[in-house]
Specification:
Blueprint: H1 10-15, E1 45-51, H2 56-66, E2 70-76, H3 80-93, E3 99-103, H4 107-112, H5 132-139, E4 148-160, H6 161-166, H7 175-188, H8 202-212, E5 217-219, E6 225-227, H9 232-247, H10 258-266, E7 271-275, H11 278-285, E8 293-297, E9 310-318, H12 325-337, H13 339-349, H14 376-384, H15 396-413, H16 416-437
Helix pairs in contact: 2-13, 8-9, 9-16, 12-13, 15-16
Length: 444
């Protein structure tokens, strides 16, 4: 599977927003903005950084101590869709912050609304610090650089090592083996399931589709978008999970509920497809199972392949309103690549760094919940390096909202055909919304 995104111009990427009247000022934004103040002057520079992550101000304090002429003040914000909406509103008022913590899937929305500057001029050698798939998430397949990757969420498979050994269950290397293990687990433990399909987690579903090779949004040289949510790769994922739910060999209950926590803690769910941050969830969700879990690479669609998807992760971007884009880009580069900054992000903010050199070393100690797997982060780093490039679009929120509703109904119905109907609904609602916003969409 190719992990390369098509190379298109920055102008092409933004052409889809032309109907919204958003592109008129884009040629002047970013690193080449002559109207920005000279960051090489002796005048002090004060930057504001919008972030939802806890303790981010402690990391900024390290920078401020070393760079007294360029100080960064962290302004705590809500995450998710709320910060995106607030940023768009701030941009319209001309007072967006200098620096932004932005989730990868929100970048196209922010770019199409002229919120993010192209900092390619100031990115330097940043590309070499990250896995190819992760870097592709901040370039959007263009020659521009809209952010510097901060943290990542490579997908992995977590399983109850004790119960797998006790009942002779196989750790699956392929999705075919995953289905076989799910059936074997139901026979060995009739009151238990290998895992569940959760309809309240579109990010996980997107990551699984990403691993299968899906490219949900792409844009061509004329600015015409193609929406391919209902593509062959995603249908394969949909049929697989819908089939297992219909067969009754995996559960159909949502995650992050008291019932789900109890299933993990009591061993009625003995596996979990999740991301690198899962140990932190298991600590509170399944406290009685410490030392009983183990992590393995995500199963592959073809034996011998080595690719994973991602669930979560964010970046540091510079806004088009910043009067000091060069200084802001320097901070974005520093916080996500400097060894001291990376160590602080791990210790204070509890993230898994996107930078390759931040994914190993003494700072990333074995999770306390996994004392039986001292090589946890060594394995995680190997998996993270195989992250496939994603392809996000300008209305991810619409697609995700439709997923929650349509796949929720399908999971309750336990019908594979309804899962496929739900996927088609995601495609239709996403295309309809893009047309309503004024984007050109192929075949629409």
């Amino acid at each position: 599977m190719s992990m390369h995104s098509p190379r298109i111009s920055r102008r092409t990427m933004l052409a889809g927003a032309a109907a919204l009247g958003l592109t008129g000022t884009l040629a002047a934004c970013g690193g080449s903005d002559d109207s920005a103040q000279d960051d090489d002057s002796d005048a002090p520079v004060k930057l504001t950084y919008w972030s939802w992550a806890p303790n981010m101000e402690k990391v900024a304090a390290i920078w401020n101590k070393k760079n007294p002429k360029i100080t960064v003040t962290v302004s705590k914000q809500a995450g998710g869709g709320e910060i995106v909406a607030k940023l768009i509103t701030a941009k319209k008022a001309g007072n967006a912050p200098d620096l932004i913590q932005a989730e990868y899937q929100s970048l196209p929305t922010l770019v199409s609304n002229d919120v993010l500057a192209d900092i390619a001029t100031y990115a330097g050698d940043a590309k070499s610090e990250f896995a190819e798939g992760l870097w592709g998430m901040v370039t959007l397949g263009t020659d521009a650089v809209y952010a510097i990757p901060q943290d990542s969420g490579p997908l992995m498979f977590y399983y109850r090592e004790d119960l797998f050994k006790q009942h002779g269950l196989k750790v699956p290397a392929t999705w075919t083996e995953f289905a076989e293990t799910a059936r074997a687990a139901r026979k060995a433990l009739p009151k238990s399931y290998l895992t569940t399909f959760s309809a309240n987690d579109p990010g996980l579903f997107a990551g699984l589709a990403q691993q299968a090779g899906a490219k949900w949004w792409t844009v061509d040289g004329s600015g015409q978008w193609t929406v391919a949510i209902d593509d062959t790769a995603t249908r394969q994922v949909t049929e697989f999970w819908g089939g297992l739910v219909q067969e009754g060999v995996i559960d159909n209950q949502p995650m992050y509920t008291p019932a789900w926590n109890n299933a993990l803690n009591k061993g009625t769910h003995i596996g979990w497809v999740s991301a690198v941050w899962a140990p932190g969830v298991l600590v509170s969700a399944a406290p009685d199972t410490q030392g009983k879990w183990r992590m393995a690479p995500l199963p592959q669609w073809t034996a011998g392949d080595n690719v994973t998807g991602s669930w979560g992760g964010s970046s540091t971007a510079v806004s088009t309103d910043s009067e000091h884009p060069e200084a802001a880009a320097k901070f974005a580069h520093w916080i996500n690549t400097d060894p001291e900054a990376l160590a602080a992000l791990v210790k204070e903010v509890a993230i898994y760094p996107a930078a390759t050199k931040g994914q190993s070393g003494s700072v990333l100690t074995t999770p306390e919940f996994f004392p039986n797997q001292p090589d946890f982060y060594d394995t995680a780093a190997e998996i993270a390096a195989t992250t496939a490039a994603s392809a996000w679009g300008p209305n991810v929120t619409i697609a995700y909202t439709t997923f929650n509703d349509a796949f929720g109904k399908a999971a309750k119905a336990k019908k594979e055909t309804q899962f496929l109907t739900a996927l088609a609904g995601m495609q239709t609602s996403t295309v309809d919304d893009m047309k309503k916003q004024g984007f050109k969409v192929a075949g629409a």
